[in-house]
Amino acid sequence: MCGRPKNSKRNSKPILEKEYKILKSYINGMDTFQTTKTKWLRSLEILYMTGMRVSEILDIKIKDIKDAIDKGELSVYVKKQQIIRHIPISKKSEKILKTLTNDETDVDAYFIHKRNCIRSRLNINGFTKELNDLLQMVLGKNYSSHSFRKGIITEMGVSGINPKIIQHFIAHKNVSTTLNYIKPTSNDIRNSLLR
Fold first, then answer.
1. CA dihedral 18, 19, 21, 25 (to 10 degrees)
2. pTM of the entire structure?
3. Which DSSP letter does residue 102 get?
4. Which residue, 90, 66, 97, is CA-closest to 169?
5. How far apart are CA 132 and CA 155, in angstroms?
6. What is the tens place of the pLDDT at every residue in 102-148?
7. In Å, how far are 7, 112, 130, 144, 183 from 123, measured between CA atoms?
8. By the 8 A CB rule, do 29 and 71 touch?
9. Which of 84, 80, 23, 89 minimizes the C-alpha distance to 50?
C-alpha cells in the first residue's frame, strides 16, 4: 500500500527557504557515496522547485530534465489525475538542473536512480520512507516528503497568487484541497494587514 491510511491527516510542516537551506547544507556535508549524495540533492531540488509528488519525481528521466532546460518547462504525467502537468522552470532552476545533470550521457537513465542501476526506477515506498527519515532526522518529526508541496503552495498563497492558478500548477482536482494547504505564518498575517 502506498500513501497514508484512509481518514488520517497530513500534519507535516511546510518546507520553506530556511528548511531548504538546512537540508541542502546537511546533504552537501554527508559522508557517503557521491551517488547517494547526488540522489538526495536531485530529490531536494526537484521537490523544492516544483512541489511535485514523490511518485512523479521517480518517473523523471534525464531526457525529461534536458527537455525542461531547453523549453523552460518540465512536463510530467500525473497518474492520480491522468493528466500531463506542465511545470514552468525558472532560470535559477534551469541552472541548478544543468549542474545536476552535466555529466549524464544516458538520456534514458532515471533522474533519481539506484546507485548502480541508472535505468531502474526506485521503489516508491522504500524511497519515500528513506526521504521521510532524512527529513525528520534533519528538520524534526513534523516534516515529510509532502512538506515540499505544502511549502510551495504556502509560498504561492501568501504571495497573493490566485488559488485557481495554484490549483492548476500543483495539479489538484479541487481548489478546496489547495486552500487547505496554505498555512500562513504569524509574520505573513502581520505583513498582510492593510491598516
1. 140
2. 0.86
3. T
4. 90
5. 21
6. 988 999 999 999 878 888 889 999 999 999 999 999 999 999 999 99
7. 25, 11, 11, 17, 31
8. no
9. 89
Instruction: Using the CB atoms, write b or e for 21-53: b if 16+ within 10 Å.
Output: eebeeebeeeeeeeeeebbbbbbbbbbbbbbbb
Q: How far apart are CA 86 and CA 117, in angstroms?
A: 28
E strand intervals along 41-142: 73-78, 83-88, 113-114, 117-121
- DSSP strand pairing (83-88 vs 73-78): antiparallel
On the 0-12 / 13-18 / 19+ scale of CB atoms within 10 A, 70 is exposed
CB 14 within 8 A of CB 96: no
